[in-house]
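Quick one: structure for this chain?
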Amino acid sequence: MLRKGTVAWVTGSSRGIGRAIALELARQGADVAVNCKSSVAEGEAVVREIGQMGRRAVLAVGDTRVPADVERMAGEIRRSLGPVALLVNNAVFALQKQFLDFTVDEWRSQLDYKAFGYFLTARAVIPGMLERGSGVIINVLSTVGERGGIGEIGYAVTNGGAMALTRGLASEFGTRGIRINGVMANWAENAFHADRPDEARWLPRFALGRVTRLEEMAKTVAFLASDDASGITGAIIPVDAGFLLT
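Got it. Here's what it folds into:
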């Protein structure tokens, strides 16, 4: 379990994996800053759910790819909830295109979501973690960063950069009390449609015969954030229903 009152910031948490993580952290005792770029109504709904659990929550609206937005959100969270002890980076948009079809702006946008955005949020919270001598950062990643994939090259590159960032930060700040890990998904249930033949044909590639459940991602993140995982840093853990095995 998390320490009660841990202040967590979960980016991209108005829906899907991020929402599941935010709610699980709250169930385990965290106060949570929910983030969205534009889906404000959904973000507010997550904040209300957390409040109903008896935990504090705030909605931080902004784009994690924009330095001024990140600094503003970090300040709002600090004033509303306190210093961030746990950062979960999840905000992303995967643009599926063949390499030669990418425009320069589209390519840069893909890199910005994880390789750059995760840098910005980490930079915003690490100084405070260093002052307190403790902190946890968990980066939500995709298996495509390891295996590549036709039509997914931009997403693969930004995930590969975020993987390198995860390991690099873990190496640099481990002796100063900060742990940084990654959790890799492939296809989660919120985005999978078994009734669509073009998606269902991928099921044999998963060793478990199904895609990842949202709660499986959320509970893995919560474990890595807890003191039970105090010896784990620099790890990138697949929660992919066995996709990488095939």
